[in-house]
Amino acid sequence: MTGSPVSRFAPTASGRAHPGTLLAGLLAWLDARRRGARLVLRLEDLDPERCSRAHGVGLLDDLAWFGLDWDAVEWQSEHGAGHAAALDALAAQGRLYPCALSRRELAALGRRAPDGGWAYDNRGRGRPLPSGGWRACREPLRCRLDDGVVSLRDGSGIDLSQDPALAAGDPLVRRRDGIVAYVLAAVVDDGRLGVDRVVRGRDLAAGTAVQVALQRLLGLATPAYHHHLLVLERGAAGKLSKSHGAIGGAALREAYAPERLCGELAAAAGLIAPGSTCRPRDLLTDFAWQRVRTDDVVFG
Asked: What topology does CATH give the domain 6-78+185-298?
């Protein structure tokens, strides 16, 4: 990568901040500020069924309350022209094809993808787009990837190497309702911003090879990746799962001062001693990935 360093934090605008959001934001913020990178907050709000401007505004407020700041804030839904241009480029390469396979039919194929979803067997390859091109297609669209292994290792040592066309199948890049899929939108927006480093939770690690494959098809540079620990929370039955909103921003702000919550999350990640309080800026001087624990943590 050339030029000035750029990082991004890209939470989904589907609800208020929860402990997992805040720890992910904190680690992305510390990494970017420590290396002097421009840091962009990208609110991913493409899915109208899950996301709203109100959710995004609440999320912005929670992150500011916690002590995180940004060099720029953007809404992913405002960059649809770039997503459409990427689909044009893939169509020009003969990569796009319709695929009407339902989720039930996909599950019936019976093979899991590395990210835990259902793998696609690429049966639709060769199906042509309608005469009006991809814009005239009323079916979901997939992108034919090149076959072969994408070799990649991230900054935490995770081997991300994978043959994505085989392991997961050609990715869905536009849904039936016309919404551009996350995997394509994230690649396009990272390229537009010039992102040279992506810091995110390791639950997203398994999908990295697909993103790299799309970057190569679109002529985009591949950023460095660093995947970190997750915050887990206990469900009603005691089962541990990724923290995704059971403890939301409003409840957190009633229960904690920001200094105490930052201290608890930083201690859980191994950055400071338990029982300490701090703000994000207090952690900058001594921040190093070698000090961040690699195993997931339970919060609450």
From this structure: Rossmann fold (3.40.50)
